[in-house]
Amino acid sequence: MIKKKTVDFIIITTVTVIILIASIMVYTFTPGNQAETSYFQMKNIINTIRDFHFSQYPDFNELYFSSGKGYEFRNESSNGLIIYLGEFGWGSAIQTRWSGKLIDALLAITELTEKYTFFVPEKFNREIGVLYGLIPEERQRYTIDNLIDNYYEVISEYLSQNNFESIIIYGASEGAFILPVLYSRLNNRNITALISDSGGGWLTYSEQQQVLLAKLLRNEKSFASHPALKEEHILLRNYYETWVQTFQTEPPSELQDSIDFFLNSPMTYKWFNSIIKLRLSDYYEKINIPVLFIHGNMDIDVPVETTRYLENNLKHKQFDYRYYAEMTHNQIEKQEYLPQKDIIEWIIKIDP
Question: What percent of the chain stands above pLDDT 90?
Fold first, then answer.
């Protein structure tokens, strides 16, 4: 089933601001033990606004499948496809255009949109404009395993209904971290290449936090050169140290399935427990298609070392690596930092 979306950008932006303010009000003013009830009251208001203004959304088809849904930016003259897997978040896989999501920046690259259809699988059948972080059921099912299952089912159904000659999967941040695992399940689907943006590959998530803590304690450039971060070093150190203490060994059973948020992060204990032991190199060692790795040297969420280790240990693979001296994690909020030229040149090289 297809639902077309088109609407004025100014209206979308206005509605997004309203939704954001409403969400902040829920977080800020709701007493702890009444959060869920108040949230659902606020959700009704948000949904009323969303249903009115988001009934038409620009430039894509909203596709419904038996296992979920996704968003298609269709190029009718193209036989190529780029599947986009985005970053962690409690909202939809896409939001209003120019909302800061990397998918917006990619869709602004005419060399790509003229050659490819884009497809973005939705997370757990979410709705555009709704935040799900205060809903217990949503926090309960947001794990890496569940997300991979969800993406696999939606993408498989979409591909079974279409016939593309070349398929590239682009993973950013969380999407990059699950990229090789998802590919291992989709490798019979005519996928021709992968792009990993700020996802790393050699270190487990737990090992990454230890590397970040060590870099912070040494005051390396990735931390020292950010003036805004100097006042936050104590908070970051507390975050890393607490994380390592909590997850370096097997967490207590009451924390393993806890859907409480860890410290001031948006991630739950359960989400962390679903990712900490995953070692991507185990999957990349078995991948024999071209892969492009993009990583910023200033990344303080996923250390660049995890990608460099992968480069040093899998030299026999069809893998290419691009590092950017001033790029932080994913850079989704600044379109001008997107390494557009490198992406275009690499795609043309592997898919002329």
Answer: 59
Helix (H) or strand (E) holding 326: none
**What integer pLDDT is reported at residue 38 of this predicted model?**
54
Domains in the chain (CATH in brackets) are: 2-204+278-350 (3.40.50.1820), 205-273 (no CATH)
- In eight-state DSSP terms, residue 134 is T
- Helices (DSSP H) in the chain: which residue ranges? 9-29, 35-53, 102-107, 110-113, 136-141, 144-160, 174-186, 205-217, 221-224, 227-230, 233-247, 253-256, 269-273, 281-284, 305-313, 340-350
Sequence letter at residue 206: S
Residue 57 has what pLDDT?
43
347: how many CB neighbours lie within 10 A of its CB?
Answer: 24
pTM of the model as a whole: 0.83
The answer to whether residues 295 and 304 touch, using CB atoms and an 8 Å cutoff, is yes
